[in-house]
Backbone:
């Protein structure tokens, strides 16, 4: 910031609405932390406490300026907080009329017709704008000093009535908690917000109480009162708040004529009365529960008449559930079959049906599309209780419409059972609700219209939890999609692990367009090549720097029969996510410019991740692909999650149907290999055993006490070996499979291998390895440390593949053998000799059995430490030549 011609040069200025309150002021302070080197423009206030506080301390602490002090031509970015309405920003109107000004807004008030067109707009319907600013600062890891934290806390406490207003959200509490950690001074806030009624105030309050009249508007009771004075009444809003408390009023409109203006202050505790909307029609603003307006050139009676006109046009008559529900409901008993359910829903044209027990109580919901798919999979004779939704909400018949909207629209439950007590008396469907809202759209709460909860921006997590080159790749993919006229997303486990803070650079992209064409353009831009799979409309980008990126066309998969491979159809991102295994993997991250970092969550994945729950997206998920059960167990153990109750019931149902028998051995083997690649595979295997999954794969795959012991040792041995960082890599799948099948007979092992679709070569190698391990175990039984030379151990172990040696180390109960096998793996197997066959030929020893015998003897001596240098080895070779001379001179 510098001065020219006596005016301040400022690229970025921050302001709030005229007649600012503490929340507006606090939000400006917060914005100054997000926009360093900005200038704060004070918008003016009529609140006495706020004005005094501003004059005494805020000017000094935060360097507020008047707009007249700014060279407006130097301004390029205008940041507006606590409002978006043009009419509430008269002090910066010259900036609003310029086309070259970029505008950013941060607000917690509902949309209005006069909202600014902003290049960036952050809207969250929280109790205070200060809480929004705190959230933005936390996303960018910005720290505060005590004065800044106190200023922001002042805004939150004031606009939430110290957390007593019904507009208060959990986000306001969380923001205040964080501010407390940053040094927020509660005593300062208490002093500033504590207001004692003066004699003058008591007089005004008495007039307001005497002038109050109660009115019934469409069944909604509200109070309107007024006062007239030639001077400004300080703390008028405070008097309104006191009147609400004294009289326990649900909806209050106070009109105050002060000089030539009419001030309207409104408060509402009734969701049917949106005072923000009403005051906005008067030229003011606010949110649903607290609002105000200032009207010029009208009398009190004219403003009162305007208000009543607005009351009758905007206040809706209360709708209760029993007036909306369909009754009596069509139901089906839980003992019925899927075929019966399909016939019932088809006959009556129902999209779903409540499931009841023998007493008529609702115990579940069944969707028509699920029943149809189940019948298509040959499950028509199954009881519908196996596939009904058991985790659902109900509503009482006397409840109001907003509970219905929260469940059907907010929680996406398509059908809502209506109860009297515990008896089912009706149902409300999503279609019923939509028809009502089409006729009366004003009833729709802003929170349910907004996609903010489903698409919060996590770009700060992306920046903080991924390497720069990965973030650059994502941005480049988004830019490319924008140029091609498509939308691109990062999806699946990659997004899940960003939220969990786990390392994962396996980038999967989905394009609402042509995935293969997109992949081709991406490698052309970044350098590399692609492998395209036209049948599945996917491609793999292999970049020049070695990175791999999977690209898919947004698609919907469906399964023609249980356990089949999927058939692919084009679809949108929502349907693409719906085909995935679990909610926590049904996430997408927008990559296009302007939306980069927005999290797309249609199915409650964030909630499930927070609750550490694994949940399928629909009740036929395991019927269509039983391998998802193995994935559920893997994820459960990897993340420390738990399989949800409904999902666990579906697991057990799939096992009862013997669906694993319909899976090919290759698909099961693929999933088992992934299990063995987990960081703690034994946890997964034990969980699989507990659930009966090992037995479902093959009856011989079950955990015994001895197998568990060996598998535990295998996990330790394998982890130890990995820490040696040797070139030879062991196949963990082969190693753990040996442990899982330990003790089975040769013909039994062949049956397991056949079920898992091993090739003939794989089966032969496995059987040969088992034989080698068995032979080595017998030979090691007589091995004694200190008495049997290490070369004996070396000769036993050298012919065996690495997996067999590691298995022997885990299998053995003798600590001395385990210790010496570890010595073999780490050092002895790399021992070599410096004497070659050419050396022996020069000594006159012909090639033959003795030739090999001498080299083996030298190697054994080298292993045992009996010879060292090449000279010592050559000397030993000469001795052996004489010892074995008769054998090669006189061969038999």
Residues:
């Amino acid at each position: 910031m510098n001065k020219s011609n006596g005016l301040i040069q400022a690229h970025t200025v921050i302001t709030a609405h005229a007649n600012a309150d503490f929340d507006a002021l606090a939000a400006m302070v917060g914005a100054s932390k997000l926009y360093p080197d900005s200038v704060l423009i004070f918008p003016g206030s009529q609140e006495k406490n706020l004005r005094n506080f501003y004059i005494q301390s805020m000017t000094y602490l935060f360097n507020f300026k008047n707009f007249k002090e700014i060279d407006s031509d130097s301004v390029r970015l205008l940041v507006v907080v606590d409002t978006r309405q043009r009419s509430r920003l008269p002090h910066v109107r010259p900036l609003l009329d310029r086309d070259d000004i970029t505008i950013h807004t941060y607000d917690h008030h509902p949309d209005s017709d006069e909202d600014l067109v902003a290049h960036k707009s952050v809207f969250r319907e929280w109790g205070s704008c200060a809480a929004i600013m705190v959230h933005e600062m936390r996303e960018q890891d910005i720290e505060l000093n005590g004065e800044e934290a106190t200023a922001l806390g002042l805004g939150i406490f004031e606009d939430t009535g110290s957390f007593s207003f019904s507009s208060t959200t959990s986000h306001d509490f969380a923001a205040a908690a964080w501010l407390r950690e940053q040094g927020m001074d509660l005593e300062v806030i208490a002093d500033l917000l504590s207001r004692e009624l003066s004699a003058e105030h008591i007089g005004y309050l008495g007039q307001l109480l005497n002038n109050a009249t109660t009115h019934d508007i469409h069944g909604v009771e509200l109070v309107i009162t007024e006062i007239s004075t030639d001077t400004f009444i300080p703390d008028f809003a405070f008097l309104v708040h006191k009147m609400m408390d004294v009289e326990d009023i649900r909806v209050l409109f106070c009109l105050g004529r002060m000089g030539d203006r009419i001030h309207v202050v409104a408060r509402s505790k009734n969701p049917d009365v949106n005072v923000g909307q009403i005051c906005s029609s008067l030229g003011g603003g606010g949110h649903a529960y607290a609002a105000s307006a200032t009207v010029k050139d009208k009398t009190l009676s004219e403003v009162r008449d305007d208000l009543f006109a607005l009351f009758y046009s905007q206040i809706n008559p209360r709708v209760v559930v029993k007036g909306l529900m369909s009754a009596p409901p069509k139901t089906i008993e839980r003992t019925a079959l899927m075929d019966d359910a399909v016939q019932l829903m088809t006959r009556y044209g129902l999209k779903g049906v409540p499931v009841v027990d023998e007493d008529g109580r609702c115990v579940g919901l069944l969707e028509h599309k699920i029943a149809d798919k189940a019948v298509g999979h040959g499950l028509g004779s199954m009881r519908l209780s196996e596939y009904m939704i058991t985790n659902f909400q109900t509503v009482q018949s006397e409840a109001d419409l907003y509970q219905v909207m929260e469940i059907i629209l907010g929680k996406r439950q398509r059908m809502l059972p209506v109860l009297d007590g515990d008896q089912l008396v009706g149902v409300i469907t999503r279609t019923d609700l939509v028809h009502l809202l089409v006729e009366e759209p004003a009833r729709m709460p802003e929170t349910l219209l907004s996609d903010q909860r489903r698409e919060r921006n996590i770009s700060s997590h992306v920046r903080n939890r991924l390497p720069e080159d990965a973030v650059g790749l994502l941005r480049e993919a988004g830019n490319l999609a924008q140029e091609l006229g498509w939308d691109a997303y990062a999806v699946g486990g990659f997004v899940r692990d960003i939220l969990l803070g786990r390392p994962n650079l396996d980038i999967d992209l989905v394009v609402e367009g042509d995935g293969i064409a997109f992949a081709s353009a991406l490698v052309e831009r970044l350098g590399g090549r692609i492998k395209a799979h036209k049948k599945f409309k996917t491609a793999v980008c292999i970049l020049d720097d070695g990175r791999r990126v999977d690209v898919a066309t947004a698609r919907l998969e469906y399964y023609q029969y249980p356990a089949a491979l999927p058939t692919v159809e084009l679809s949108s991102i929502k349907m693409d996510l719906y085909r995935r295994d679990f909610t926590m993997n049904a996430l997408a991250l927008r990559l296009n410019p302007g939306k980069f970092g927005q999290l797309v969550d249609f199915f409650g994945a964030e909630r499930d991740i927070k609750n550490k729950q694994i949940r399928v997206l629909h009740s036929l998920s395991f019927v269509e692909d039983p391998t998802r059960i193995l994935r559920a167990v893997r994820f459960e153990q990897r993340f420390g999650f738990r399989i949800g109750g409904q999902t666990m019931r579906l697991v057990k149902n799939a096992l009862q149907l013997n669906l694993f028998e319909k899976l090919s051995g290759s698909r099961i083997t693929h999933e088992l290999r992934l299990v063995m690649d987990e960081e703690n595979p034994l946890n997964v295997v034990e969980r699989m055993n507990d659930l009966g999954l090992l037995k479902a794969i093959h009856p011989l795959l079950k955990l015994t006490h001895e197998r568990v012991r060996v598998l535990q040792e295998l996990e330790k041995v394998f982890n130890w070996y990995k820490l040696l960082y040797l070139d030879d890599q062991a196949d963990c799948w082969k190693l753990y499979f040996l442990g899982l099948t330990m003790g089975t007979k040769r013909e039994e092992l062949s049956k397991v291998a056949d079920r898992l679709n091993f090739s003939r070569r794989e089966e032969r190698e496995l059987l040969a390895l088992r034989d080698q391990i068995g032979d080595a175990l017998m030979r090691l039984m007589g091995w004694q440390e200190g008495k049997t030379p290490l070369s004996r151990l070396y000769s036993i172990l050298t012919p065996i593949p690495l997996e067999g040696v590691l298995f022997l180390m885990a299998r053995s109960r003798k600590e001395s053998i385990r210790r010496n096998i570890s010595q073999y793996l780490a050092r002895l197997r790399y021992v070599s000799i410096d004497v070659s066959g050419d050396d022996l030929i020069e000594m006159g020893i012909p090639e033959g059995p003795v030739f090999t015998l001498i080299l083996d003897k030298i190697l054994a001596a080298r292993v045992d430490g009996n010879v060292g240098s090449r000279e010592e080895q050559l000397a030993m070779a000469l001795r052996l030549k004489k010892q074995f001379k008769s054998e090669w001179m006189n061969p038999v």
Remarks:
- Residues 117 and 165 are 30 Å apart (CA to CA).
- The chain has 39 helices and 31 strands.
